[in-house]
Amino acid sequence: MGSKVxxxxxxxxxxxxxxxxxxxxxxxxxxxxxxxxxxGGTSIPFGSNQACRYQCxxxxxxxxxQGPRVLTAIxxxxxxxxxxxxxxxxGYLDISLLVSTTDKTAATASAVFAExxxxxxxxxxxxxxxxxxxxxxxxxxxxxxxxxxxxQFPWAYGLTPATSTLPAPRNLLIEFHIHAQPSGxxxxxxxxGCTSPQATFGSxxxxxAVPGNPAVTLLGDPSMLAGMSYAWRVANATPSVPFLVTLDxxxxxxxxxxxxxxxxxxLFDPANPTQPSPALAALVWPAPDCWLNVSPVxxxxxxxxxxxxxxxxxxxxxxxxxxxxxxxxQALAFAxxxxxxxxxxxxxxxxxxxxxxxxxxxxxFYNNLSTPPAPAPSAGILQAGxxxxxxxx
Length: 393
What we know:
S-adenosyl-L-methionine-dependent methyltransferases, six-stranded antiparallel sheet, 2 helices, 24 strands
């Protein structure tokens, strides 16, 4: 072996040793799903008595790390979209596991398994018997990532740039080959759509309502996706009256950009509730206990129905850069009998764009117990925006 090759191998060995020594905490893939239940559970690939090939591709933007990282295990989460449900253990399964970097993306993935693999594709588990653990009944929220697949040896993501002949890694590929499994359903947490984090904020007082009625409330669709329509829903408004939903990208700072009028800002003078607030003196009349919780940069108009409910629809800007962006909204409803201003407000509601995420899966079930045994399929069903959620160790 030439001295240059020996030197290169030595450098790679030292690099791998140094990477393996780095402390690594568990992180969730896709990163946006850390601490968040996926949009749907799935019985693929563990919900059958058939063999299965199952491959997931994660765009680099969905990974919670940058640069080299040593992987020693992946840990799946069982589904909890139906809270307080026990999932029985399932075993034993004969499983192999491959990991790889790949130039394929969720948008360009192939239905042919081999075409998605990168040059560093490695079987890190081969024909290991695995039991999927029993999952106890838990309240709503993601289950712990406790379905562990410990690699038979470490695998380094991001090692390929150390050699001049291999491309830099981009995206991550995880591929299960279930050679055999017993019958029984075992659902894992799955990205199938997504659930947007939502919360209320701001101020509202008991007088900010039509006498005898509850306060106006604002809710939104469960999933906010970049490039798609999104609906906000108003309830408890006066029947058949107009309302507005005001929008901004923040609930901080001052009303209309003035830091002296800090949010939330009252629609009345706190020192004398019979008068309007100083910033809104042009309105002439006050709305005691009502507050502006967002600065109205954009507004959507609607009319409540006979039950006092209504909805408005906006389009979320397209682009992966908007995933993780939070939109802040508030409802303002016309209310002739509520106060001198004839206006009531809701608490603010924040909603964070949760997708679409750069994930795709390819899978194929087959019967390897037939006579003669069916060969493992080379291609499967390709689905974009769908894939398992797991922690990396």
